[in-house]
Design goal:
45% of the residues lie in helices and 22% in strands. The protein contains 28 helices and 30 strands. The strands form six sheets. Strands 16, 17, 18, 19, 20, 21 and 22 form a seven-stranded mixed β-sheet that branches. A five-stranded parallel β-sheet has the order 2-1-3-4-5, with helices on both faces. The radius of gyration is 69 Å and the shape is rod-shaped. The N and C termini lie far apart (174 Å). Bound molecules: adenosine-5'-diphosphate. Residues 549, 553-554, 557, 588, 590-593, 601, 606-609, 614, 617-623, 646 line the site of adenosine-5'-diphosphate.
């Protein structure tokens, strides 16, 4: 209903009595009302419907439509039903009144109208209606408020449910505690992650429940930590906590929040980070291991991000170059700019080749400049991380400081060089010493032997002389052995393979040891196990040296029993395998060697076992033999039982050669002269003995020999006499043989003269140097006379006269006819002496046997002559047949 009528209310008066209408109109107008009138019921309905008066004064008794019907109609219409209606009627019956009220009338005024009463009733009902209207508005407002409240309650409920769902879904323990008392006010269902027993947590003190070992609240979440002095919350705080029972780790975040009751409380959210912690721990352990490994390896680390072109250089990387951790940028130039200029291109090429996958590894040794300016050696290694297209994205690697290693290598190489120089000096010294010692020793031994033949000396003096001789001979062996050992140590031992008759070679050795064993009273057996090659190629002298050393030891260390020498092939030559594998084995029944001593005996100067045996040797033989065997491609073996005996053996690959040449050499004619004009030979040697030996050798054969005692004299004499050949010693005081040769070669008329170096310096280098200086050939001292003659014949193309040694069969057949010879025993002793070239020993022994057996005079004379001419080899040939009671035959032939 429109309330604008309230200050000037509109009243509708419906009455079919004109006077009534007039009266009421005038009166009510005067009273301040706006008055509408209708003179019948129908009209009244129309006006009421259109104008909506605040009140209707309705007459009951009207024609056509009475007041009750009008009321009934208006009350039945929605827009008019609320208009209060006051009936005006003369009817005073109660039933009419009841009927009127039942139809919805507000009041009843009885006619005749009392105007004051009308006004009073109108006013009452208007104010009633106003109050009613106000009540209705109030009611509507109230209803709206109720609806709104219901809505917000519903929203609150939904929000709470959502909040709880989120809290429970958080997978984190959430709890709220009182700021001051630490009393637990709220926990979500995940609180069981934090504590085992989550029953009845509300109301308990949080730190007593969560940190059972603590005796006071946690310092980090005390009220001062999370609230400012002005009572405002600080920002969120966090810490990590490990549950002592479950060992699980939690990340706890907390902050002050307002609680439902308005106070500040502590909200905490704990997230389980055990797995992250374990991963971190594993990572840390890995990192620690890696760092330790790097530190252990002392290596620097670099990590090159190729996309950003940035490099991480580890502290150690920088330290190697003298920089601190904060120095140097992360640019690749820090590496490249410090490279030694000579290493830059190689380093770049290496990296590029690796990126292009041309090389499988990046690894390079470079020099890098240290902060102090010097260079350090670095081994740089790395591997790349490739993308799917095979492009390198990143490269990680290490730097190893090689400076110390390089310094050690340099020092080692210096030391090695120094050692080599020292070794060379030692070898040269030993070679010189042996050279120098031999000459005086020759004099000592020579005089000792001369004195031995002196019949005026008494037995005591003879004995003393014998001691001098034995000591001298021992010294001579020692010098040879020491020289061999020094050659081995300096790696300058060389083999000079020649072709020789193998069986003849073995027979010579057998003959020698047959005799030696007999002298010692033990048996010697040679066992020829298999068929053997006839002529082989090997270093005959060295092979003999090895076998003689083994057999000498066997005889020396055997007091009784036997020595067996076995030779056999374990593999004969074939079309596939031109070599024979020959096994040489020496067995004895001697003192044997203790097993713990076996490894020692091959070391130089090592002697084991009984002392008195040790006096009889140098301890060098086996060391030399073992080395020689190795040089020949074999291995020297030993098996021995103390007190029972020893077996030494070796297997060598020996090449068989066609036997023709060698067989001829057995019958090789011996040169006894030259026909035609005498060639002039100049002998240049500072040793008188050497000059006279060569002179004694060559003069009888028809050479004209000239002698010069040093290089200078040699050059002078050569210019004067224009010799056909010069035999030049190399080591001489003042001007040596090398210089003399060079000077001679400069003299035009001598530039083609034959010069043959003869030297006791038997090292290969000396031979090479002599050839470089201008010599045509080289002969080692002590020389074999045949070799000198052969060389002279070769270069001078001489007309030679030969004495040919008859074939063995001839010799055997005619031996007895020619000379009465020594017994096989005597022959063996002489043969042995001839093998070792002991001229004085031979002369001595000859005198001995001649004294006892005068029919040997002729034989003795012949041998003596050969001995005086140093024809040791021929002495051997002459004696050999008598080892088997067969004398020789000789005849002369001209070439
Ligand atoms: P040397 O015989 O001059 O002492 P070796 O080098 O030839 O030197 O031998 C070294 C050592 O090996 C000998 O001193 C000896 O102790 C031991 N030895 C070598 N051969 C035999 C052997 N056949 N029987 C027992 N001992 C041996």
């Amino acid at each position: 209903m429109d309330t604008t009528y309230s200050h000037q209310n509109t009243l509708l008066v419906v009455d079919d009595k004109h006077d009534n209408l007039k009266l009421l109109l005038a009166f009510l107008n005067t009273a301040g009302f706006n008055v509408l009138v209708a003179e019948n019921g129908q009209k009244g309905i129309e006006i009421a419907t259109l104008a909506h008066p605040d009140m209707i004064l309705l007459d009951v008794m009207m024609q056509n439509m009475d007041g009750f019907k009008v009321c009934q109609h208006l009350k039945s219409q929605a827009d008019t039903q609320d208009i209060p209606i006051i009936f005006m009627t003369a009817l005073t019956h109660l039933d009419d009144k009841v009927k009127g009220f039942k139809l919805g009338a507000a009041d009843y005024i009885t006619k005749p109208l009392q105007l004051e009463e009308v006004l009073a009733r109108v006013n009452v009902h208007l104010s009633l209606r106003q109050l009613q209207q106000q009540l209705s508005v109030q009611n509507q407002l109230l209803q709206k408020e109720v609806a709104e409240r219901q809505q917000s309650e519903q929203a609150l409920k939904t929000a709470h449910e959502r909040f709880i769902t989120i809290l429970e879904g958080l997978e984190a323990a959430v709890y709220v505690t009182d700021m001051q008392t630490y009393e637990i006010l709220f926990v979500n269902k995940h609180i069981d992650q934090l504590v085992n027993n989550n029953n009845e947590l509300l109301g308990k003190v949080c730190w007593q429940v969560f940190h059972r070992t603590q005796t006071s609240p946690c310092t980090f979440c005390s009220p001062n930590q999370i609230m400012t002095g002005k009572g405002q919350p600080t920002s969120a705080y966090h810490w990590e906590y490990q549950n002592p029972d479950t060992q699980r780790w939690f990340y706890i975040q907390g902050r002050a929040i307002r609680w439902i009751d308005g106070r500040w409380v502590r909200l905490e959210v704990a997230t389980d980070i055990t797995e992250r912690k374990q991963a971190e721990e594993a990572l840390r352990a890995n990192e620690e291991r890696f760092q330790l490994a790097m530190r252990g390896a002392n290596e620097g680390l670099w990590d090159w991000n190729l996309e950003k072109n940035e490099v991480y250089y580890s502290p150690r990387w920088k330290q190697i170059l003298g920089y601190g951790e904060q120095e140097l940028s992360s640019h690749p130039t820090e590496f490249f700019e410090r490279l030694h200029p000579d290493d830059i291109s190689q380093s770049r090429e290496n990296v590029t080749a690796y990126f292009e996958k041309k090389i499988p590894h990046y690894e390079i040794t470079v020099r890098m400049q240290h902060k102090q300016g010097h260079y350090v050696w670095i081994l740089s290694r790395g591997i790349a991380v490739w993308n799917e297209q095979g492009k390198a994205l990143r490269m990680v690697g290490t730097h190893m400081d090689l400076t110390a290693q390089k310094q050690t290598e340099d020092a080692l190489s210096q030391a090695k060089k120094a050692a080599e120089i020292a070794n060379r000096a030692k070898t040269a010294f030993l070679a010189n010493m042996s050279h120098e010692l031999r000459t005086p020793l020759n004099a000592i031994l020579g005089y000792a032997q001369l004195f031995k033949r002196d019949k005026t000396l008494n037995a005591k003096q003879q004995e003393s002389i014998a001691v001098i001789q034995r000591s001298g001979e021992y010294l001579l062996t020692l010098i040879s052995d020491v020289l061999d050992v020094s050659k081995i140590e300096a790696n300058r031992m060389e083999l000079f393979p020649v072709e020789f008759d193998f069986k003849h070679f073995i027979n010579e050795i057998n003959e020698l040891f047959l005799m030696r064993s007999k002298q010692k009273g033990i048996d010697f057996h040679y066992q020829f196990i298999t068929q053997l090659p006839t002529v082989i190629q090997a270093d005959e002298t060295r092979l003999r040296q090895i076998i003689i050393n083994l057999l000498s030891n066997a005889v020396k260390f055997t007091k009784q029993g036997e020595v067996i020498f076995k030779v056999g092939s374990t593999q004969a030559s074939s079309s596939h395998f031109p070599n024979w594998k020959i096994r040489f084995q020496v067995e004895d029944t001697g003192i044997g060697i203790a097993s713990e001593e076996l490894s020692k005996i091959f070391k130089p100067f090592q002697q084991v076992g009984e002392r008195n045996y040790q006096m009889q040797g140098t301890g060098l033989g086996l060391a030399i033999s073992q080395k020689l065997v190795e040089m020949m491609g074999g291995q020297l073996h030993v098996e021995s039982t103390l007190g029972e005996g020893s077996t030494f053996w070796m297997e060598l690959d020996l090449r068989e050669v066609s036997s023709k040449g060698q067989l001829e050499s057995i019958d090789k004619p011996v040169m006894i002269g030259i026909s035609g004009p005498s060639p002039k030979i100049l002998v240049v040697d500072d040793q008188g003995e050497n000059r006279s030996i060569l002179s004694h050798l060559l003069t009888p054969l028809g050479f004209e020999v000239f002698k010069a005692c040093d290089g200078e004299e040699g050059v002078e004499l050569a210019t004067q006499i224009q010799p056909a050949a010069i035999l030049m010693d190399l080591v001489m005081p003042e001007m040596d043989g090398f210089e003399a040769t060079r000077q001679i070669r400069k003299i035009p008329q001598l530039k083609d003269v034959v010069i043959i170096a003869i030297s006791a310096n038997v090292f290969e280098l000396d031979q090479q140097n002599s050839i470089k200086a201008g010599c045509d050939d080289f002969i080692a001292k002590p020389f074999q006379t045949e070799r000198v003659l052969e060389k002279l014949n070769q270069y001078l193309n001489l007309k030679t006269i030969y004495q040919r040694t008859a074939k063995k069969s001839d010799i055997q057949a005619q031996a007895d006819l020619s000379l009465t010879g020594p017994s096989p025993e005597q022959a063996a002793i002489l043969f042995d002496l001839s093998l070792i070239g002991d001229i004085e020993g031979i002369l001595d022994y000859l005198e001995n046997i001649e004294k006892n057996k005068s029919e040997l005079k002729q034989f003795v004379f012949k041998v003596k002559k050969l001995a005086e001419d140093f024809q040791v080899h021929q002495i051997g040939d002459l004696i050999k047949p008598y080892l088997q009671k067969n004398p020789p035959l000789s005849k002369e032939v001209e070439n």
